[in-house]
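debug: dumping io for the single-chain case to check the tokenizer round-trip. Nothing else runs in this session.
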Amino acid sequence: MTPWRAGFRFPLYLRIWLAVVVAVAVLTFAFGWLWRVSNEQVPEREVIIRNEAGDVLGQDKTRPVRDPTRGLEFQVEMKDGSTLVVQLPPRRRSPGEPPSGRSWTRGPGGLLWMLAIVALAVAIGSYPIIRRLTQRLDDLRVGVERWGEGDLSVRIKESGSDELAFLAQRFNHSAERVETLLKSHKSLLANASHELRSPLARIRMGVELMEPQTSPAFQNEIRRNIAELDQLIDEILLASRLDAKESDIGTMESVDLTGLAAEECARAGAELVPSTDERPLVVPGVVKLLRRAMRNLLENARRYSDGPVTVELTREGRNAVVRVRDRGPGVPPSERERIFEPFYRLAGASERFGGVGLGLALVRSITQRHHGSVHCEDQAGGGACFVLRVPCD
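debug: decoded output
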């Protein structure tokens, strides 16, 4: 599972849309607050009260008080020391004017309602536009993920004439070139490996027809080199077929893993510790491939081990687990993943133990084609333990 899928998913289109909504909401509340503050901070007005003769009875600078029911009120201090309240009542409706004639948009509260409706309209109207834009980004992400997982035939739909369309076009072009390059490489590898079979057969025949005076040691050395080269070609061909996802690897059937492990342990001289579970360890797979994986693990353990090799079979949940233990030098933690790479060998391993570095790579490819996994871990007392898991029936 990729980090994107394993973590908390918060799509890009939602983040952009929420950013727009939050921005409109903040603008609405800020404007409403400024409107309210501006209405509360009404400037002072000078109010003068005169009698009919024009004499000033009271004069004062005061700030009006706004009352929703009584209108505006001014408090004026008279000359005799009393305080007079001057009221400007709100406008009354005419007899024929309906109660709804008063606009609900008047005043700070009405303006807030109007801004809220505008914000809602912006949020609803911007969602499909943002979703349409980010949907193409999501399609691009899905395509890149599938391509990175090994599906080299995936292509991204090219639509529009903007930067995203150009990016999708360039990705498709690059993916096509990589797929073509890998196919040609695999074809060349398969053909070259196949063509090497003929000269090998002729060399083998020539060795058989050697004159009797040729030393047996020399003949054995030639036979050993031929067998090693023949095994290398066979492993390269198998690796090429396993890497090609569309290739036919054989007929899937139910395989008795205990019986297969017993045969390979008898062949390699290893000790078998069968599962204590009463149920048989039957897995769906290709017999020759599972046998090849088991054989490669045993040969690898026998090549490096200074003591007995042990094979343990267990059932863990819905998986059959094979543990191949040896008493060799072990594998450093930093190298436990790299040893499954093709042609990778530990420092000095080729000089001391031989091999070309394809055995463990084939084991991983075979287990992956059977929806399983393989890894290396520590073993108590020294050595290495290779753990292979495949789903049971």
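debug: round-trip ok. Confidence is low (pLDDT under 50) at residues 1-8, 100-105.
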